[in-house]
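Much of what follows relies on a compact textual record of a protein's fold. The record below shows the convention in full:
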Amino acid sequence: MKEALQISLPARLEAILYLKGRPMRLQEILEIVNEEKDLVEQALFALTASYAQRDTALEISESNGLYSLQLRTGLGELVQNLLPVDISIATLRTLATIALKKRILQSDLVDIRGSGAYDHIKELISQKFIERKRQRDGRSYWITLSEKFHQTFSILPDINTPENTKAA
């Protein structure tokens, strides 16, 4: 940890946003860096300003209290064909269904997409685009999008979902 203390706070924040690969609330960031709120806010402002002044493909974005390091607006189409995603059309349609619903029971997904969805789910889990958790009061699984999905497809998660509405 000594070495991390020698690295500036903006650089540490940049590393956190890069490695998390998803929008983060200030409270989450504070828990990781263990610094005063005012210092972290100043460092985020400095980091954002630094990116805004540079000619770079990345930017620090703040939206509804969520901070992220992302591709600058307008570059998505340029890099879309460079993404290492090897998914069949049928599996991609299943993933699109999950993305539209944000959270769906596996049984409901199979009703919508057919029994082939079981294979699609296995493939999407193996490629880490989705996560599956056992339903508490039933026999099915809840299926949600993973951080890798959001990184790969540059889609911000809905900030109104339960996992993103924790008090900041």
Observations:
- The CA atoms of residues 11 and 97 lie 37 Å apart.
- The beta strands are 24-25, 58-63, 66-71, 103-105, 130-134, 141-145.
- The first strand starts at residue 24 and ends at 25.
